[in-house]
Design goal:
There is one protein chain. This protein is an alpha+beta fold. It has four domains: 102 residues, Reverse transcriptase/Diguanylate cyclase domain (Alpha-Beta Plaits, 2-Layer Sandwich), CATH 3.30.70.270; 57 residues, 3-Layer(aba) Sandwich (MutS, DNA mismatch repair protein, domain I); 54 residues, DNA polymerase, domain 1, CATH 1.10.150.20; 152 residues, DNA polymerase, Y-family, little finger domain (Dna Ligase, domain 1), CATH 3.30.1490. It is built from 17 helices and twelve strands. It has a five-stranded mixed beta sheet. A four-stranded antiparallel beta sheet has the order 9-12-10-11, with helices on one face. The relative contact order is 0.09. The structure holds magnesium ion.
């Protein structure tokens, strides 16, 4: 029995902690020598040749991409184009066609969306995908990564490498380890062993200068870095000390932020028999709007305008909307608004309803949302509750929460205890 608010939150956090044990799974997909590969694909005469996409060797441009044949001569991206010919006299220069690469990139992204909606593109040729909880549909995360690579290969005739890991940092490191055409997966249990021998330059944010600093204290590998505490690192690396300490242990809490912010999100249902009871409709609205709210939270977006759609038994259909003072993705706020619309619209003895829809428009991404001080504490409490519900649902599926159907039955039983519903 929970006796106090403090105890209540204690329980919530315990539960969150427990559920956090279900591993997040991130894939980092990185196209191999992307621009150069697209050029070679489009012009097979270039196959097997050192192709360099970028500025002219006579100008001041830099290499945007180099085929693997060019890389064998030491040509790499970001190298001044004027240096290329010194290393590789037979290099074939091609002017970048960015619009074309963008259209190919869009096709690659469409392949990602077959497997998850949580896609965060980093550039035209790489993206993070959050596939946590997608295993039941598509097999293990490594399987998903390989399916994606297969789709890209067979449909677009291009080659991608992938890294599969519990977080973004590890997935990105992994995708780079077996290029080209590689797929490296890291299990949670193997993270420390995996990182141990890797060069300190594999730590995100460690460039040449920083690597030299590490070298001066005898740190060459990530394993070496782990011998230092945050306090020991701080005098040399300041605010980055904690960041380096975390990455050396494979700790990275950043979420995959989807770029695909829809214009509206909605759910609707047609009832098996028309509904005349307003309370039953409200119960359905809780279920439907709950799903909408969960989708908002999964995409880390909020919405301001709540809509309902009602279709009467004579097929007359109407929509009603209400705009809230500020965007939210809290289930309770959205459900209250939807139910307020239902109450406003439905007179006593209204005609039977055959369809109910709930939705939200006027969407904004998390970073664009500014929270007012008003009701902040109240919101925080409900956010925590939503967080726990989301975790439970992602782990145990929809059966874990009471469905509208059971609420409907309960209401019917309360009204008439003699009803025995066979469903
Ligand atoms: Mg790439």
């Amino acid at each position: 029995m929970v006796k106090s608010i403090r105890q209540y939150y204690g329980r919530l956090h315990e539960l969150l902690h427990l559920l956090d044990a279900c591993d997040p799974l991130i894939i980092h997909v990185d196209m191999d020598a992307f621009y150069a590969s697209v050029e070679i694909r489009d012009n097979p005469d270039l196959a097997g040749k050192p192709v360099v996409v970028g500025g002219s060797p006579n100008g001041r441009g830099v290499v945007a991409a180099a085929s693997y044949e060019a890389r064998r001569f030491g040509v790499h991206s970001a190298m001044p184009a004027s240096q290329v010919l010194r290393r590789c006299r037979q290099a074939i220069f091609i002017k970048p066609r960015m619009e074309h690469y963008a259209s190919v990139s869009k096709k690659i992204r469409e392949i990602f969306y077959r497997y998850t909606s949580l896609v965060e593109p980093l550039s035209l040729d790489e993206a993070f995908l959050d596939v946590s909880g997608c295993e039941k549909l598509f097999g293990s995360a490594k399987n998903i990564a390989n399916k994606i690579r297969h789709d890209i290969r067979s449909e677009l005739d291009l080659v991608a490498s992938a890294g599969v890991a519990p977080n973004k940092y590890l997935a990105k490191v992994a995708s780079d380890l077996d290029k080209p055409n590689g797929c490296v997966a890291i299990d949670e249990a193997d993270v420390l062993d995996f990182l141990q021998p890797l060069s300190i330059k594999r730590i995100w944010g460690v460039g040449q200068k920083c690597a030299a600093k590490f070298e001066s204290i005898g740190v060459r590998t990530i394993g070496d870095l782990r011998k230092f505490s945050v306090d020991q690192l701080r005098p040399m690396f300041g605010a980055n000390a904690q960041h380096f300490w975390n990455l050396a242990r494979g700790i990275d809490d950043r979420l995959v932020i989807s770029d695909r912010v829809a214009k509206s999100i909605s759910h609707e249902t047609t009832f098996s028999h028309d509904i005349t009871n307003r309370e039953v409709l409200e119960a359905w609205s809780i279920e439907l709007m709950g799903q909408v709210a969960r989708r908002l939270r999964r995409h880390e977006i909020k919405g301001r305008t709540v809509q309902i759609k009602l279709r009467y038994s004579d097929f007359q259909t109407l929509t009603r909307a209400i705009t809230l003072p500020e965007p939210t993705n809290i289930s309770k706020s959205l459900i209250n608004a939807a139910n307020e619309l239902i109450v406003r619209e439905l007179q006593p003895n209204h005609s039977p309803i055959r369809l109910l829809g709930t939705g939200i428009t006027n969407l904004t991404g998390r970073r664009m949302t500014q929270q007012t001080l008003f009701d902040q504490n109240e919101n925080k409490k409900h956010s925590e509750i939503d967080k726990v519900t989301d975790k439970i649902l992602s782990k145990f599926g929809n059966a874990a929460v009471r469905s509208a159907k059971t609420i409907e039955q309960k209401i019917r039983h309360q009204r008439d205890p003699n009803i025995h519903d066979g469903n």
